[in-house]
Amino acid sequence: MQCSQDPKVSPRVLDPDQLRHRLQHPPQWQPEITDENRHVIAADIIARRQAAGKITQAAVLIPLLLHEGGLSVLLTQRTQHLHDHAGQISFPGGRMDPDDLTPEKTALRESQEEIGLNPANVEIIGHLPEYLTVSGYSVTPVVGLVQAQAEYVHDEFEVADIFEVPLSFLMDPANHQVRIWQSEQGMRRFYAMPYGNRFIWGATAGMLRNLYHLLKV
User: Fold this and answer.
1) 187, 165, 118, 115: which is closest to 146 by C-alpha?
2) Which residue, 21, 89, 174, 216, is most buried by CB atoms nearer than 10 A?
């Protein structure tokens, strides 16, 4: 099902100065609760993970690359052998280390480790509400304006590929789809944002939907 009935984000809002203002002085808006979030809460996944002594806090960077023709979002394709979300498209990021005092620190550290993104090239402009994943993490999406690098050196164990998608494409609900996942546990809806031969879905699409809801106001 397409989401084209939803209002499109104004191109004016996709300007770096406007984005900076919107993230730092957000209007009243309502984050979207996905079926994944509901399942995590209903099944008490994060609480059970905490009870087992496992890390549940994580952070990702939503890197908005500054180009003359407009902003784009830097995304990664995860390798197939990873335990969590193998082969999926994601933002750079991961679990918070004990030495990470803030989600911003985690997002920058993980981005440097995964794709060689220089923290000096990133201006953190805000963050989105935590997103709960079925793998048992409460993820803080950190939004940053990024000076594009000539090249990115990816961690070959975790990252299979790095690519960009125009922010205007991802903020257009005509490019958002609601799909159905059926399992023995029942039916679950999830968002997808196909781009060429890339299939952006799940938690990554869910976080992008929340960025969309913040910017469409």
Assistant:
1) 118
2) 89
